[in-house]
Amino acid sequence: MTPYDFDQYVSLVKEKLQLLTDEPVEQKEINYGQQLKVKQAPSSVTLSLYNGKKGLKTVWGGKETPLLHACKAALDEAPEEAGALPENPFHHGCLLKEKPGFDGLWCGSDESGKGDYFGPLAVAAVCVDEATAAKFASWGVCDSKALTDDKIHQLAAKIRETARAHATLVLRPQFYNQRYQQLKDQKMNLNHLLASGHIHALGKVLQQVPECHFALVDQFTRHNRITGTLEQAFPGLQVYQQPRAEADMAVAAASILARDAFVAVMDQLTEQAGFPLPKGGGAQATAAARRIVEEQGKDALVRFVKLHFANSRKV
């Protein structure tokens, strides 16, 4: 499996596992692969994914618990488990076409940065009709994870010019950390913060296009308040959530706007740090955080990273 295919596979597995818990699934680099850790108190499960000369290898860790069984069952249901990714997972264009009453106008939302130790959390929403979606497809709009940052920047400008409506919410690290702590004090978690972001971004788009009655969200957990909150605020609206919703053009466009916003803030933070800041949450991110502490002091860290990540305990 090529490195690109392996990264895509790990991302798909992580999305599947995230649906089983309200706690963020942790990811770290290991020799020849990646390790995912799933936590749902009082249990935890690790899954080590290796990409070696003999192909893909998976190793489970953790006690025999209902959580472990649920994780294994979730991956057994995944058609990509053998490592074969769809040749073009974005060919559908619209995932809501078969929904009752669908009229060809819809919006989608996605986020970027939730798995990155450095940088903001960005959530975006985009409203399209079928003609706009077809135009996006002709430009090569797809899940931002399959694009370079330069391509994302180019497409983001065209999406903002062409979409029926769009909105992007960016929580820079300092504000993100404040909001996360406030939610934690109220016995809430990251999924509540993510839900608020999707509600805010989609709400701004729906206010601009009140005739839009369909919304699609890239699902990040089984239970959240997105559907109920938006459908109550916008009578007649139908909100759908599903994993891998980036196959839909509205969600794919939102993923590009969110990633473009994330990269823009990362560039600003890199300038403030005085050296390149790594994306992701691995050992390189921890090392970069240590350097910031050494050069600017521990109090500076709140402006660069998401403090609740496990990396912070190693700095």
Description:
The chain starts with a helix and ends in a 19-residue tail after the last helix. Helix 4 (149-162) packs across helix 8 and helix 6 (190-208) packs parallel to helix 7 (226-233). Strand 8 (214-218), helix 7 and strand 9 (238-242) form a beta-alpha-beta unit. The chain has 9 helices and 9 strands. With 315 residues, it is of the alpha+beta class. The chain has a 5-stranded mixed sheet, sandwiched between helices. A 4-stranded antiparallel sheet has the order 1-2-3-4, covered by helices on one side. The protein is globular.
Order of strands in the sheet with the most strands?
7-6-5-8-9
SSE order: HEEEEHEEHHEHHEHEHH
> How many distinct helices?
9
What's the average pLDDT? 89
The number of strands is 9
User: What proportion of the residues is helical, as a percent range?
Assistant: 40-55%
* Separation of the first and last Cα atoms: 34 Å
Largest sheet: 5 strands, mixed
Strand content: 15-25%
Our Rg estimate from Cα atoms comes to: 19 Å
Low-confidence stretches: 77-92
From the structure above, extract its key features:
315 residues, 4-stranded antiparallel beta sheet, 9 helices
Helices and strands in order:
Elements: H1 3-18, E1 26-30, E2 33-40, E3 43-52, E4 55-61, H2 66-76, E5 105-112, E6 121-129, H3 130-139, H4 149-162, E7 165-171, H5 173-185, H6 190-208, E8 214-218, H7 226-233, E9 238-242, H8 249-273, H9 283-296
Parallel strand pairs: 5-8, 8-9
Antiparallel strand pairs: 1-2, 2-3, 3-4, 5-6, 6-7
Helix pairs in contact: 4-8, 6-7
